[in-house]
Design a protein that fits this description.
By secondary structure, this protein is α+β, with helices and mostly antiparallel strands. Helix content is 28%, strand content 8%. It has one domain (6-80). It has helices spanning 32-37, 42-54, 75-80, and strands at 13-14, 19-21, 30-31. The chain has a three-stranded antiparallel β-sheet with strand order 1-2-3.
Length: 88
């Protein structure tokens, strides 16, 4: 990435399975579902979210080149790729 925007990024994502991602390009997640199911108070939930935000990196992957979020290939490119055992 030539221009790091992570420090100014204000985006979060809650995944379909209840995990909080503080970096849309990262793989680290915090399970909000588990926190909620354990009977946590609103204050405890806020603490978990604030702690996750506190661990957010100032820049993505330490300057490693940008990697797109989508790992899906088009049907055509998959049929041309003979080097993989991936059934998709």
């Amino acid at each position: 990435m030539s221009e790091h925007f992570c420090f100014t990024c204000n985006r979060l994502r809650i995944t379909a399975d209840g995990n909080l991602k503080v970096c849309l390009h990262g793989s680290n997640e915090v399970s909000l579902r588990d926190v909620l199911r354990s009977g946590a108070t609103q204050q405890q939930l806020e603490t978990v979210i604030r702690e996750a935000l506190g661990r957010k990196k100032r820049q993505h992957a330490g300057g490693v080149a940008y990697q797109p979020l989508s790992v899906y290939q088009s049907r055509e490119s998959r049929s041309n790729d003979q080097s993989t055992d991936d059934p998709y």
